[in-house]
Write a structure and sequence with these properties.
This protein has about 210 residues and is mainly beta. The chain is built from one helix and 18 strands.
């Protein structure tokens, strides 16, 4: 199990002995979010208050790469259909994409709200389907396959949840167009896009 902390570290725990097996300092800022890499089981990805995404290999306590996304990172995810790409949501209302191939390359920096975006997720079923949720109470879909004239993913559609601030969020692993997130009103928000015409048209779905 991995954890992140206010003490600027990421830690890996041996649950069989309830002891810390590995500790690594990843900068001078609070580490807010952490995930195991989808394709390499010894690699951890972390996001911090200083706006950096950091990729570390726990086998030798080595930082493989770091990239400044601009503002405090609220969440991030790897594209389940293209794990070399990482997408982050930021406190300033932006989402930010990077590609790890041939060094760390910025894909886009897109403003989606004037309030913090607490989550960004990519569909494991539909290539390029990005969904965000955040403090403005909306869920927004963008098309990572189709960049507009501004060189950024095109906006597709928006859903108003009417549940206050939205937190977390993920696509269903079983249902193609189902997105869920939490809310400040204590309700689980469920958005099914099965009959959403803009989504179906943008991604060529029947």
């Amino acid at each position: 199990m991995a954890s992140s902390s206010d003490d600027h570290t990421v830690k890996v725990w041996d649950l069989s002995s309830a002891t810390c097996a590995f500790s690594h300092n990843v900068g001078e800022s609070i580490v807010d979010t952490i995930r195991w890499d989808n394709s390499t089981d010894s690699v951890l990805i972390s996001g911090s208050d200083d706006g950096y995404l950091r990729i570390s290999d726990i086998r030798d306590s080595k930082e493989i790469a770091a990239h400044k996304c601009g503002m405090k990172i609220e969440s991030f995810c790897q594209d389940p259909l293209n794990p070399q790409q990482i997408h982050a949501s930021l406190e300033n209302g932006h989402i930010f994409g990077i590609d790890l191939r041939s060094g760390v390359k910025t894909l886009y920096d897109l403003s989606v709200s004037n309030k913090p975006v607490t989550n960004v997720a990519l569909s494991p079923h539909v290539k390029g389907l990005i969904c965000t949720s955040g403090f403005d109470g909306t869920m927004n879909v963008y098309n990572h396959n189709d960049y507009g004239e501004n060189g950024k993913p095109k906006f597709v559609t928006r859903e108003f949840a009417n549940q206050g601030n939205l937190f977390g969020g993920q696509f269903s692993g079983d249902t193609q167009l189902l997105y869920t997130c939490g809310s400040s009103k204590g309700e689980v928000v469920i958005w099914t896009m099965e009959d959403n015409k803009p989504v179906k048209e943008a991604f060529g779905l029947k």
